[in-house]
Amino acid sequence: MKKTTRISLFNFLVLTFLSAGIIVFFVNNIIAVNKLAETNSDLRNELSKTATFNNALMTEAERLSNFDNIRPVAVDKLNLKFPDSKLKKITVAKSELNN
Fold first, then answer.
1. The pTM is what?
2. Relative to the CA of 40, which of 33, 59, 88, 95 has its CA 20 to 30 Å away?
3. What Rg do the C-alpha atoms of the chain give, in angstroms?
4. Where do runs of H (alpha helix) occur along the chain?
5. Cα angle vertex 73, ends 64, 80, to 5°?
């Protein structure tokens, strides 16, 4: 005698919907992870571009603050003059300061 087991329709439908829900959940997670990876990649590229631009600005600031670039502007536009002789050192005794 052959014994056959029958699966009820209700159990089959519950198992089918449960399996479909789990599959949808995993596919949704894969899609979310891919989107986050893409966003992460975009942010890393933007960070790299910003760092490169920042380095370029720092180099430009150093170039512009060079004394050879400042001297013509100071002399021509602001009429500043450089001293002809070296600065003299003046010493004052403490006893002279109290008087």
1. 0.56
2. 59
3. 40
4. 9-64, 67-72, 94-98
5. 130
Spatial distance between the Cα atoms of 36 and 38, rounded to a whole number of angstroms: 5
User: How far is it, in rounded angstroms, from Cα 17 to Cα 24?
Assistant: 10
Structure tokens at 1: 């005698």
- Helix, strand, or coil (residue 74): helix
The token duo for 23 is: 């599959």
Please state the domain extents for the chain.
10-98
**Tokens 């600065």 identify what position?**
87
Q: Rounded to whole angstroms, how far apart are CA atoms 99 and 93? A: 11
What's the pLDDT score for residue 10? 92
